[in-house]
Design brief:
globular, transmembrane helix, membrane, transmembrane
């Protein structure tokens, strides 16, 4: 998912926590499993899922030179950010838009004739690289950095008067048009941005308010809800935990993880898809995108008007975008998301192996 890139940036600022976690002990598998779970399920940057279970098993940190571990961990986090952005935002946005207007039959999801080309991770990535190089795979990344810096500033200012969860949502709504330009610079060819109307369009901002509100609310819940439940379900004392207390901690962590997985599948991902659809429908129909159809001989991308020609010309309402999110499109997005998680798991496993070999 796009917001997960900011989560990786938070992890980059918390390298000390990563380093303290690398202790040569039998609990290393629990560390990797916890990292995998927090990769699959969108969460805050400090890995809240299974946090109490991990703390119950964790022993005191080992003494070692942290400087030696800084290089592999930093490289791992940079690769994590790149994978999340390229697959979780750029390719995911392409996949969502490529399937617009296609009636996907659930019983034929595996049919290659019906499957969009962006479903195939390496094939689509290689095609984009051939057409525009690595810069095309990182389309819009400068706008992403600008958006998240502005979002962080507005959120911090809003927390003076509002709770942090509400401040996050308010900041997202206020910056809805900034996020729209991030999406536009992601899916459009660079020379097409001149056709996009200038910022501060009140009518466009109003069209973005409701889908942004729904998605940011789901996002805030995924970030803050695990920590809130952990604090309320935490035992009175963390010292000398009994077998019954440990069993309670494990059961409650499993329950929280299951709730978060359900929320991600049926709330966060569909709301993200609806937001992308509404944002794309607000672009001028003549704009050329980075979506390419294999049947075309020329090197031109599909225009926005062609994407929505079979659905509706003009801006989509949130309920119209929601109706377009069928089971087939959702399964395609889940498949791509699963491939992204697999790539992140490979990166994490390599970093763990390198770190353990250096201890």
């Amino acid at each position: 998912m796009s917001a997960e890139t900011s989560t990786s940036i938070i992890r980059l600022c918390s390298l000390s926590r990563y380093i303290m976690a690398y202790t040569p002990s039998p609990q290393s598998l629990l560390i990797i499993f916890r990292e995998l779970l927090n990769t699959i399920i969108y969460s805050a940057g400090d890995y809240p899922l299974l946090a109490r279970t991990h703390q119950s098993f964790q022993k005191g940190p080992a003494q070692f030179n942290r400087g030696l571990l800084l290089a592999p961990i930093s490289v791992g986090i940079v690769l994590d950010i790149l994978v999340r952005y390229i697959i979780g935002h750029v390719l995911m946005s392409i996949l969502i838009l490529e399937t617009v207007g296609k009636q996907v039959n659930v019983s034929k999801v595996a049919d290659k004739k019906l499957a969009p080309s962006s479903r195939y991770l390496f094939q689509n990535s290689a095609a984009l690289y051939r057409r525009g190089g690595f810069s095309l795979l990182l389309n819009g990344i400068y706008s992403a950095c600008t958006y998240w810096v502005m979002h962080s500033l507005v959120t911090n200012i809003s927390t003076i008067l509002l709770p942090s969860q509400l401040a996050y949502v308010v900041a997202s709504v206020l910056l809805a048009e900034t996020r729209f330009f991030w999406t536009a610079k992601t899916i459009l060819q660079r020379d097409q941005l001149r056709f996009v109307p200038s910022p501060h369009d009140l009518r466009r901002w109003r069209a973005l308010v409701l889908p942004t509100l729904i998605y940011s609310t789901a996002e805030a819940m995924m970030v803050h809800f695990p920590g809130l439940l952990n604090s309320r379900l935490a035992p009175a004392s963390s010292e000398n935990v009994t077998i019954e207390g440990l069993s309670y901690i494990v059961r409650s962590d499993i329950l929280i993880s299951a709730l978060m997985l359900f929320a991600q599948l049926f709330l966060l991902l569909p709301s993200y898809m609806a937001l992308i659809l509404v944002q794309a429908s607000l672009l001028p129909p003549i704009c050329e995108t980075i979506i390419y159809r294999p049947s075309r001989q020329q090197q031109q991308g599909v225009r926005v008007g062609e994407i929505f020609s079979a659905v509706k010309q003009g801006p989509l309402q949130i309920w119209e975008a929601a109706q377009m999110i069928g089971t087939g499109r959702l399964l395609y997005c889940l498949e791509l998301y699963g491939k992204m998680c697999l790539c992140l798991l490979v990166i994490a496993a390599m970093v763990h192996l390198i770190v353990y070999s250096m201890l």
